[in-house]
Design brief:
With 558 residues, the chain is an alpha/beta fold. It has 2 domains: 394 residues, Glycosidases (TIM Barrel, Alpha-Beta Barrel); 81 residues, Sandwich (Immunoglobulin-like). The chain has 17 helices and 20 strands. An 8-stranded parallel β-sheet has the order 11-10-9-5-2-1-13-12, with helices on one face. A 5-stranded antiparallel β-sheet has the order 14-15-16-20-18. A 3-stranded antiparallel β-sheet has the order 6-8-7, with no helix packed on it. Helix 11 runs parallel beside helix 15. The radius of gyration is 23 Å and the shape is globular. The structure holds 1-O-alpha-D-glucopyranosyl-D-fructose and calcium ion. The site of 1-O-alpha-D-glucopyranosyl-D-fructose has 14 residues, from loops. Belongs to the glycosyl hydrolase 13 family.
């Protein structure tokens, strides 16, 4: 039943609370998104990935769901959702929803019941363990947002597991009743017309049932990986889900898979195994991790990035890649991987070029098409995200100096990606008429959609052209990936090859002007320029290219 439309699609990620507010309460909503669909259409994206909009106390901005069947009223009603879906489909835009089934909110009915007794019908919906003889937690695992991954509940005299906040108890996937409740809920949304799911932390759903303690040297907040990532039954569960749900619909799936290498990713995405279409891997997100994990002040190295990307391009074989620079959990791409001042425009276009000509399905995070950069907040009080607040507390507690704390938070906070979408240069950025739930970026006066749409050289139109190229040339979808000049210090070059079609992509990661010498087999190929981020790049590929700061070139011949 299913076709491979997701291979040639480009996906635009919408963080609903920060996209467009239609009723002045300062929170983006479904009606606001519906109003802005023509903008996404103009960009050329085929699919929207909508972050969670279900009923939720919003401890982790919707990744804590209290009712899978209800829409959080701050985003609108079920009718608003249906009208979003209909309007999107009329524009030929598909919508995939976030599926958060590793955990629920602690306010979910199942959990409330589960807390009450060891014998009722919800008793085994979550992962409960007895205290150790001294009363302490069953394992030494830390949780993502600080503190132990176990929380004690007196009414059961037991601990429950939560890999994320304590308000996000982990579901017990060993229990078949839980799995069938989840499948039922998935069928409900697919039957209502949605086009697929992005599956939150799906690599964590199967726990090693011996619950092994973590190595003492593991970064505490990720120390649960040893017992929870790519666990013994994860593939069995996904195959069951595929058979019971996914295979019945023409839908796409992308699994978010922390702590998953390319060999494991192949298991998730090999079509012959009937699990998922693609996964979000994290290797390129880890290149600038430091002693304390994500919140470091380290800059990535281009050669590491090239190695990682190349490995993923080459090793998925029958599987399929998803391609992304950023999302609602990551800082802004142009700050992290490009140059966010003098060469903000050039380097944002360069990063887009590098990613979108690769093999896989590209994801654009809202505002990336405007080259939004990290947010220079003046004070800690402006940060809202549970991860940032817990890192701040933890760093203070272990005595790190303020300069390091402020810098690493500026560089890595998830709130960098969560400030309201700047639609125009007015005081409220065209986002709301009220007070926004999180402060605007101080950049909005200069960096906004209206300005980008009015400038034919803007990053927005560069993305639009990349999407057009993907649609026009089959080599971008199906071509082999081959790295060229693999030791170049500053330039990442690769080719895509499909039968007689050759696409050559050359991207500079430096603000210096440098020479780039093509390998002999390409030097006289006479390939023609398809796209560049400078107005006057050579129309035909030259054996020696003078690369300007962050220049990005696409040449093609057939
Ligand atoms: O993120 C999962 C995940 O891997 C996080 O630990 C991620 O590494 C972290 O946010 C990066 O700093 C997913 C969602 O995308 C995230 O927004 C949720 O908070 C989390 O799951 C819990 O549902
Ligand atoms: Ca609103």
């Amino acid at each position: 039943m299913s076709t491979n439309w997701w291979k040639s699609s480009v996906i635009y990620q919408v963080y609903p609370q920060s996209f467009k507010d239609s009723n002045g309460d300062g929170i983006g909503d479904l009606a606001g998104l519906t109003e802005k669909l023509p903008y996404i259409k103009k960009l050329g994206a085929d699919v929207i990935w909508l972050n969670p909009i279900y009923e939720s106390p919003l401890v982790d901005n919707g990744y804590d769901i209290s009712d899978y069947y209800k829409i959080n009223p701050v985003y609108g009603s079920l009718d608003d959702f249906q009208s979003l879906l209909t309007t999107a489909h009329d524009l030929n835009i598909k919508i995939i929803m976030d599926l958060v089934v590793n955990h629920t909110s602690d306010r979910h009915f199942w959990f409330q019941q589960s807390c009450q007794s060891k014998t009722n019908q919800y008793a085994d919906f979550y992962i409960w363990k007895d205290p150790l003889p001294d009363g302490s937690a069953p394992t030494n695992w830390g949780s993502t947002f600080g503190g132990s991954a176990w929380e004690y509940v007196a009414s059961r005299n037991q601990y429950y597991l939560h890999l994320f906040a304590k308000e996000q108890p982990d579901l017990n996937w060993e229990n078949p009743v839980v799995r069938h409740e989840i499948y039922k809920m998935m069928r409900h949304w697919l039957a209502s017309g949605i086009d697929g799911f992005r599956m939150d932390v799906i690599s964590l759903i199967s726990k090693y049932q011996d619950f092994p303690n973590a190595d003492k040297n593991a970064v505490y907040s990720k120390s649960y990986y040893v017992g929870a990532s790519n666990g013994p039954r994860v593939h069995e569960f996904l195959q069951e889900m595929n058979q019971e749900v996914l295979s019945q619909y023409d839908c796409m799936t992308v699994g978010e898979t922390p702590n998953t290498n390319s060999a494991q990713a192949l298991l998730y995405t090999d079509p012959g195994r009937h699990e998922l279409n693609m996964v979000f891997q994290f290797d390129h997100m880890h290149l600038d991790y430091g002693k304390y994990g994500k919140f470091s002040d380290i800059r990535f190295k281009m050669s590491d990035l090239r190695d990682t990307m190349t490995e993923w391009q080459q090793s998925l074989d029958k599987g399929w890649n998803s391609l992304y620079w950023s999302n609602h959990d990551q800082p802004r791409a142009v700050t992290r991987f490009g140059h966010d001042r003098e060469y903000r425009i050039e380097s944002a276009k360069m990063l887009a070029t590098l990613l979108h000509m690769m093999k896989g399905t590209p994801y654009i995070y809202q505002g990336e098409e405007l080259a939004m950069r990290n947010v220079a907040f003046n004070s800690m009080a402006q940060y809202k995200d549970i991860e940032t607040l817990s890192v701040y507390e933890n760093f203070k507690r272990i005595g790190l100096d303020d300069e390091y704390i402020n810098k690493s938070i500026y560089l890595k906070s998830r709130d960098n990606a969560r400030t309201p979408m700047p639609w125009d240069a007015t005081e409220k950025s065209g986002f709301t008429t009220g007070e926004p739930w999180i402060d605007f970026s101080p950049d909005n006066g200069i960096i906004n959609a209206e300005a980008c749409l009015a400038d034919s050289n803007s990053v927005f139109y560069h993305y639009q052209k990349l999407i057009e190229i993907r649609k026009k040339y089959p080599v971008v979808i199906d071509g082999e990936y081959q790295l060229i000049n693999e030791n170049d210090s500053d330039v990442y070059g690769y080719v895509r090859v499909l039968n007689d079609e050759v696409m050559i992509v050359i991207c500079s990661f430096t603000e210096n002007k440098i020479n780039y010498i093509l390998p002999a087999w390409l030097a006289n190929s006479q390939a023609a320029l398809l796209l560049s981020n400078y107005p006057d790049s050579p129309k035909t590929l030259e054996p020696k290219v003078e690369m300007r700061p962050y220049e990005a070139l696409i040449y093609y011949k057939s």
